[in-house]
Amino acid sequence: MKYRRLGKTELKVSVVGIGTWQFGGEWGKTFTQEEVDQILAKGKELGINFIDTAECYGDHLSEEFIGKSIQANRQDWIVATKFGHQFHGHLNRTNHWSPEEVIRQLEDSLRALRTDYIDLYQFHSGADEYFDQDDLWTALDKQVQAGKIRYLGISIGKNDNIHQTESATQVNAKVIQVVYNRLDRTPEEKVFPSCQQQDLGVLARVPLASGFLSGKYKPGSLFEGNDVRSRLEREEIYNKLQQVEEIGNKEVPEGVDMAQWALAWCLQHPAVTCVIPGAKNVEQVEANAKAADLDMARDDHPQAWK
Predict the structure, then answer these.
(1) What pTM was estimated for this model as a whole?
(2) How many domains does the chain have?
(3) Burial of 31 (C-beta count, 10 Å sphere; 0-12/13-18/19+)
(4) How far apart are CA 228 and CA 57, in angstroms?
(5) Does residue 304 fall inside a structural domain?
(6) Closest CA to 60 of 105, 91, 27
(7) What is the residue range of 234's domain?
(8) 298 within a domain of the structure (yes/no)
(9) CA-to-CA distance for 139 and 83, rounded, in angstroms?
């Protein structure tokens, strides 16, 4: 495993982390504590030290799984969670952005994670009107001073939200989380340059494009049932998979796993600190971790390979 400095936090994070939205049950699978324990134990064994979760991956359910799993070795993990929403059921949330509500969420997250501090506490994909609240950031700064939060971050909801990105230093946020993958390069235009100028850590979420870049699906594949991808129109799914097939034929070197290539592709951008793919089992954790070993050269031609 390789490690990078997470911007001004000075934390050393593994370049591959573990995203945990799936633990909340909205990706077509219900998890048990034993399964989560195995996934995180394998990650630790492979040198992964970064976990990203949120208050609304289930009603603090993902956090509860994680808390029980890592309580014996909490100091070995850098734990990031988020605030701003309340889970009410499958893909059903409400917004909760007042300082009082956010502090209550913080306490609930601390309790679920079985810890007395959160390494990275992130504004979770909220609109600018919720972001632009001085009282909110003042309340959060007090929690930083109290030691309940080590660092603040912003998980921007839109990949081109330059307002929140450029305001990061002003609100004492040191990390930006954003959707970034081979199918969506939007952050390269405005967000990444701003992050580099401010020396912000960058977490690339959805680096496998919700599994489209896993290499497992061909044009014509469908997603059904309790899977968030089932919300997409069939034509959109077909078009994405056609694009993926073309990328696989033209850009992914022969003999290289597409998912590992896609993660390594993200990591070649100088702004990106860490990718946070989800994992449904131990095998996926192992495969994701191997992306740290790939040696890619990206310039104007992302298919270039050393």
Answers:
(1) 0.91
(2) 1
(3) buried
(4) 12
(5) no
(6) 105
(7) 3-293
(8) no
(9) 13
Predicted local confidence at residue 297, as pLDDT: 52
Phi then psi dihedrals of residue 28, to 5 deg: 85, 10
> Tens digit of pLDDT for each residue in 164-210?
999 999 999 999 999 999 999 999 999 999 999 999 999 999 999 88
Domain-embedded: residue 51: yes
Q: Where are the beta strands (DSSP E) in 29-172?
A: 50-52, 78-83, 85-89, 92-95, 118-124, 149-155
Strand partners, 3: 14
DSSP per-residue letters across 273-285: -EE--B-SSHHHH
User: What letter represents residue 143's amino acid?
Assistant: Q
- Contact by Cβ (8 Å): 168, 179: no
Calpha distance 32→136 (Å, rounded): 35
Distances (CA, A) of 174 to 151, 171, 198, 240: 7, 9, 9, 33
Here the CATH number for the domain that contains residue 27 is: 3.20.20.100
275 touches 291 (CB < 8 A): yes
Residue entry with tokens 């097939």: 245
Largest CA distance in the chain: 54
In a domain, 45, yes or no: yes
